[in-house]
Structures are given as C-alpha cells and as structure tokens.
C-alpha cells in the first residue's frame, strides 16, 4: 500500500483536478511531491478532520491556526502553489454538489475520510469568531468586530508594525524599496496631508485613527487640530499616550467613538485610512453621507480603502471565510467603482483616484518579516494560534495584492460648494 503522503497527495489532486505543486510530508514521516518544492507538513490526522468538517479554505485555516498544518520552506511559494485550492475554488454549496456527482471526486473524498480516521471532527480553534451573520454593522456589532481585531495587545502590534504604528499601506519610493518601512509610512501620511492641503488652524477628523499616527503627523507637521475616533479602547489609550509624549494634547483629541456619533463638525478635512473596509455594503452610503455632512463646503475627504475585483454577478460575492472568521469579522471589500459611485451619491465630487496596489504588497512583506523576526515574543504575547493567524493572513494578502486579486486606492473627494469652486489645482497631483 502507498505511504500516507502519497495517498494524501493523490486524493487531494483528484479533489482539485490538478497537480499539487508542493511537497507533502505526513505524520508517519513519509513524503511525496517535487523534491525542491516547499513542504506542506500534515502533522496529524486532526488536520484532515478539520477539512472533513469544513472542506475548502476554512478547513485549511483551522488546521493551520491549530498548528496541525504548517509549511517548511518559502511560505509565499507554498501559498502561491496552493492558490487554486485556497482562493479559486471557493466553498459554494452548488459547486460542492456538482463535484459530488463526479465518481473520481467521491472516491477521493472517501480516501481522505479513511485517512482522517473515525473520531469526531475537532472543534474550531478558540481564535475563530463564532456569531450569527445577522444584525451586521450595528454600533454594537462593529465595536465587537473592531475589538476582536485590534485589541490583541499593543505590544503585539509594535512587533508587526514597527515604530511607525501605522496599520495601512505604506508609500514606497521608485524604484522599489531601498528605504525603511518607517520612512515609507511617514511618506504615506505626508501624501495624505498634501492631498488634503492641510494648513495651520484647520480641523481634521481622522476616522478610524488607529494608534494615532496620522493625527500626530497632521498636528505636529501641519499645525492642524485633530479629532481622531476609534472603537478600540486599547488603540485609544496607546494613541493618547503618544499624543501626550509629543506635547500635542492641546491639538489632538482621541476619542472612543463611532463615526456615526460625531456631531461637532464642520471639519476642514477628513481622513479615513484603512477604515472603510469595516463599514459594510449596507452601511456605506450612510458612512459617506455622514462624512459629507461633517465637512465644510470645499472640505476634502481622503478615503484610503482596499478594493476587490468586480464580479460578473455581484450577488454571488461572499466574504472570504478565513478573513471573516479570524481576522476582520464582518469586514467587506467592494469594487472601486462601487465606492466611487456611493461617494458621489452622498454628494461628493470625486477628484482623484490613485491606485497603490503594489505598495501594499511591499508593506505586507515587511510586516511578515517583522513578525517572523519577533516570532517568540509575538507568541508569548498573543498566543501561538493568533500569531499563526497573522502570519497566514499577511503572507496570503501580500500575494493577493501582487497577483491583482485585490487592490488599494486613495480616493480624494470634495464637498464642492454650490458655485462649483472645488479649490483644487488645475493640474492633478501637484497637491498644493
């Protein structure tokens, strides 16, 4: 009888209908596959039981987070090789039903069941969010989702993000980075400030202010007064300390507040950097309208947001199961065109769109490097399961940006007053 690795590799190839271009090492020590490929290590039968319980991406993620499945060698190469299994097949019930009509698929499924063994499938790892998908994007559910993602511990995020403590796409020089992550993050904050034309004496609302980096940059380097809002109490406490350390408490107010509750406008400018992904499609027009209302006539919005590729049938869009369960509960990505349309419907004039997709891939690779360099401390702070979540999510996301599965865009919009004077330069991208 073939060894476990050969049987496992054969069954998986039958299921996905394609060669598996990684090497497989099974719990019995056997190996199968290309000798120079990254190694997918299946440490025990429990890894297969996760897949039996939840075929597809979520089952693989559970096995990874639980430590039953891991990779030796180049993680990026392994994820790229597994893209057909992880990203492109999906978990749609109709697709599974069609596959089950194929005798070869049923035979492979029975083979995996036999290898998995008789015990009941294991429970999901404790890092998985389990809640009904109803009542999405209420103020209560948004607080809970933000807390799951951001209240992991500021010390953990210091390891991943580095001294800048900016959790969004950096802005790298061309040609690609000889520079540091910290400089690239500074350049991104400065780019936002220049697009908003920040000047001393103005008021800026920073929606989803994170650990306070944009608020501090705007107040310290551009002389504006800033209100930063976040739903994370840990973020707010950290940001307030940074503000105090910079001597900016007279110009920066960090609040634990929902953007829907901000009522002390008008503001000269609004920055929303990496926050709108949490809003959700059902609430996006409400989000855009609220920011439009908070701006003065002539005020500018800089909306920095991840976008997905549009689908032929948008009703078939499903939130990524791993990201939803482990990383950004209730987060949603929209195509760029949808975002621009909703901003326009809320009353904004969209003046500029800049795609910086490749910049996010470079940023994520630096974050992965930071995490792996500080792995032991990260595990001691957040636990091995949570550290594995962040490693998988950031490495897979880097590849998704590189392969144009997702993108990120800065959209500059203006609350243009009735006479039609936008206040922007005649030539785009001079930002003055």
TrEMBL record:
Listed name of the protein: Cyclopropane-fatty-acyl-phospholipid synthase family protein
Composition skew (Basic residues), residue ranges: 131-142
EC number of the protein: 2.1.1.-
Domain (Polyketide synthase-like methyltransferase): residue spans on this chain: 156-417
Cited PANTHER family: CYCLOPROPANE-FATTY-ACYL-PHOSPHOLIPID SYNTHASE (PTHR43667)
UniProt GO MF annotations: methyltransferase activity
Pfam families attached to this UniProt entry: CMAS
Keyword Magnesium belongs to the record: no
Stretches for region Disordered: 116-142
Positions in coiled-coil regions: none
Keyword vocabulary terms for this entry: Lipid metabolism, Methyltransferase, S-adenosyl-L-methionine, Transferase
GO biological process, one term: methylation
Entries under Gene3D superfamilies matching the protein: Vaccinia Virus protein VP39 (3.40.50.150)
Source organism, top-level taxon: Bacteria
Family under the similarity heading: Belongs to the CFA/CMAS family.
Transmembrane domains' residue ranges: none
């Amino acid at each position: 009888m073939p060894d476990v690795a050969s049987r496992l590799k054969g069954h998986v190839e039958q299921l996905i209908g394609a060669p598996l271009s990684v090497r497989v090492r099974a719990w019995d020590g056997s190996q199968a596959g290309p000798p120079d490929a990254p190694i997918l290590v299946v440490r025990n039968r429990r890894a297969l039981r996760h897949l039996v319980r939840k075929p597809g991406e979520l089952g693989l993620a559970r096995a990874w987070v639980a430590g039953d499945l891991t990779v030796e060698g180049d993680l990026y190469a392994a994820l790229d090789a597994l893209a057909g299994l992880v990203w492109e097949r999906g978990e749609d019930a109709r697709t599974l039903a069609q596959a089950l009509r194929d005798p070869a698929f049923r035979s492979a499924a029975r083979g995996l069941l036999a290898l998995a063994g008789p015990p009941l499938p294991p429970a999901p790892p404790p890092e998985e969010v389990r809640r009904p998908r109803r009542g999405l994007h209420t103020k209560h559910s948004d607080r809970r989702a933000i807390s799951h993602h951001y209240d992991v511990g500021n010390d953990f995020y210091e390891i991943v993000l580095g001294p800048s403590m900016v959790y969004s796409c950096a802005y790298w020089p061309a040609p690609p980075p000889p520079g540091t992550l910290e400089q690239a993050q500074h350049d991104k904050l400065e780019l936002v400030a220049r697009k908003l034309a920040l000047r001393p004496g103005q008021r800026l609302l920073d929606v989803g202010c994170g650990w306070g980096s944009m608020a501090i940059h705007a107040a310290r380097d551009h002389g504006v007064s800033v209100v930063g809002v976040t739903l994370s109490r840990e973020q707010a406490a950290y940001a307030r300390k940074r503000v105090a350390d910079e001597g900016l408490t007279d110009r920066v107010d960090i609040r634990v507040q929902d953007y829907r509750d901000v009522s002390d406008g008008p503001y000269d400018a609004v920055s929303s950097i990496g926050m709108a992904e949490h809003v959700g499609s059902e609430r996006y027009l409400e989000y855009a309208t609220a920011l439009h209302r908070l701006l003065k006539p002539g005020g500018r919005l800089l909306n920095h947001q991840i976008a997905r590729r549009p689908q032929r049938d948008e009703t078939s869009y499903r939130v990524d199961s791993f990201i939803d369960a482990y990383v950004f509960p209730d987060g949603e990505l929209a195509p760029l065109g949808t975002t621009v349309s909703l901003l326009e419907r809320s009353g904004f004039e969209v003046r500029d769109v800049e795609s910086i997709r490749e910049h996010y891939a470079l940023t994520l690779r630096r974050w992965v490097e930071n995490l792996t360099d500080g792995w032991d401390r990260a595990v001691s702070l957040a636990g091995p399961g949570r550290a594995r979540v962040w490693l998988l999510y950031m490495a897979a996301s880097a590849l998704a940006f590189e392969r144009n599965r997702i993108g990120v865009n800065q959209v500059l919009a203006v609350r243009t007053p009735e006479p039609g004077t936008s206040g922007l330069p005649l030539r785009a991208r001079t930002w003055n």
